């Protein structure tokens, strides 16, 4: 049984690869730098209340052999067109936010050029070639090494930062007030640990894993795989908040909104604790992490858009996946032309949009996993159902709170 569980690992780590990116390297370090330990409550509670909705992606895929998109169609004909419109409205901004951070890290690591639009073009082009050559199998294999490298370097940096710190930090929690602080909180929650539509991506990867391995994965194995990735995102999220707090909180330093400058500050968070010798290793780990996020989002959005279109028109579309990758590539570069000087605004827009659309995905996933579409024996237990209902109230409540306070 143990061997089967270990072999089933894959989609959960792809989830972690997609999640551990902007939400951790950018938003979590900012949270620590600006609020100290004060927003740890937000990080923990959002992981708790989003957990069931993310879990329902691989659970449904394992129980039915279908993606969440196929399940959405069974709920009602209106669902997929609405999903298509929401995803189309957000996918370019999300990809641009991820890519610009990757480009900033690339400029610091390789130093060839400071032109982040050029770096974005190169990164996206390499990502497309990577996906064309290896597709899911290569993505699945590489992700395991990337996540392990980042985890080891981040945990080490936090331990050293604690041992070197002479400050006594207030661990009392903070409820943000004022439009600026509330906007940051919602942006922080929006991508922590990831946008909720990543549950759809996870179900697609799970079905793809099933095809590649040619074995049936039991829902319990799928949930185990997911839990490994999800716990990893939580631990690293806490680490990045601590790192930002220990190094930058109550100091004169503030994070820049420019991609290149922010990347330099981020790498300095590590080297300040680990020593200058670690620069190349840390820069490489941060870059490969963001590069993996860029690849996974570039792969997943076109898969989801193409799948939704095929389900709407009820026929296969030749070169549909390739069309959406090309469109996403061009749209991302177009957005970056306008926001290249202010990465902070771009990330803020993308993360807030993700939070405001989260209730839509949460409700759909809950209806699907507890309805007739999912076999009774694979439906969640009563505790998870109650947690789901509380989570839906939390997501809707915070969205209303944000909209009435900005």
Describe this structure as you would to a colleague.
The chain is mainly α and 406 residues long. It has a single domain (9-403), classed as Amino acid/polyamine transporter I. The protein is 80% helix and 0% strand. It is built from 15 helices and no strands. The chain has helices at residues 2-7, 11-19, 22-35, 40-64, 68-75, 79-110, 116-164, 178-190, 198-213, 219-248, 259-274, 279-313, 320-339, 343-370, 382-403. The N and C termini lie far apart (52 Å). The model is unreliable at 1-6 (pLDDT under 50).
* Number of extended strands: 0
**Rg of Cα set:** 20 Å
CATH architecture: Up-down Bundle
Looking at this structure, what is the CATH superfamily?
Amino acid/polyamine transporter I
Distance from N terminus to C terminus (CA atoms, Å) equals 52 Å
Mean pLDDT: 84
Q: Please write the CATH class name.
A: Mainly Alpha
Biggest pleated sheet: none
Q: Could you state the order of secondary-structure elements as H and E?
A: HHHHHHHHHHHHHHH
Number of contiguous helices: 15
In short:
This protein is mainly alpha-helical and 406 residues long. The protein is 80% helix and 0% strand.
Question: What order do the helices and strands come in, and which of them pair?
Answer:
Elements: H1 2-7, H2 11-19, H3 22-35, H4 40-64, H5 68-75, H6 79-110, H7 116-164, H8 178-190, H9 198-213, H10 219-248, H11 259-274, H12 279-313, H13 320-339, H14 343-370, H15 382-403
């Amino acid at each position: 049984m143990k061997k089967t569980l270990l072999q089933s690992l894959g989609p959960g780590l792809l989830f972690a690869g997609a999640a551990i990116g902007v939400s951790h390297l950018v938003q979590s370090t900012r949270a620590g730098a600006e609020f100290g330990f004060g927003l740890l409550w937000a990080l923990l509670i959002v992981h708790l209340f989003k957990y069931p909705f993310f879990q329902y992606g691989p659970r449904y895929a394992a129980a039915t052999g279908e993606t969440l998109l196929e399940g959405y169609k069974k709920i009602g004909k209106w669902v997929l067109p609405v999903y298509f419109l929401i995803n189309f409205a957000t996918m370019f901004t999300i990809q641009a936010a991820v890519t610009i951070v990757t480009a900033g890290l690339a400029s610091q690591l390789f130093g060839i050029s400071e032109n982040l639009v050029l770096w974005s073009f190169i990164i996206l082009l390499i990502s497309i070639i990577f996906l064309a050559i290896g597709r899911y199998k290569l993505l699945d294999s590489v992700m395991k090494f990337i996540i392990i490298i980042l985890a080891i370097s981040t945990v080490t940096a936090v331990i050293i930062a604690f041992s070197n710190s002479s400050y006594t930090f207030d661990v009392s929690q903070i409820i943000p007030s004022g439009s600026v602080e509330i906007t940051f909180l919602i942006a922080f929650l929006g991508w922590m640990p990831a946008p909720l539509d990543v549950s759809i991506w996870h179900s697609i990867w799970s079905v793809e894993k099933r095809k590649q391995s040619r074995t049936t994965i039991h829902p319990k194995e799928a949930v185990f795989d997911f839990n490994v990735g999800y716990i990893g995102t939580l631990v690293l999220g806490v680490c990045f908040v601590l790192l930002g707090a220990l190094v930058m909180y109550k100091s004169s330093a503030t994070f820049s909104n420019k991609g290149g400058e922010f990347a330099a500050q981020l790498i300095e968070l590590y080297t300040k604790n680990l020593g200058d010798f670690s620069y190349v290793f840390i820069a490489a780990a941060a870059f490969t992490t963001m590069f993996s996020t860029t690849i996974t989002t570039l792969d997943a959005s076109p898969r989801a858009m193409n799948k939704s279109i095929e389900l709407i028109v009820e026929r296969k579309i030749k070169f549909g996946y390739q069309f959406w990758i090309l469109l996403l590539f061009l749209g991302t570069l177009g957005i970056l032309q306008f926001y290249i000087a202010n990465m902070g605004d771009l990330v803020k827009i993308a993360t807030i949009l993700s939070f405001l659309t989260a209730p839509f995905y949460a409700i759909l996933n809950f209806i699907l996993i507890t309805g007739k579409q999912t076999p009774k024996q694979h439906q969640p237990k009563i505790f998870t159902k109650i947690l789901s209902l509380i989570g839906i109230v939390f997501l809707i409540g915070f969205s209303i709170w944000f909209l009435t306070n900005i």
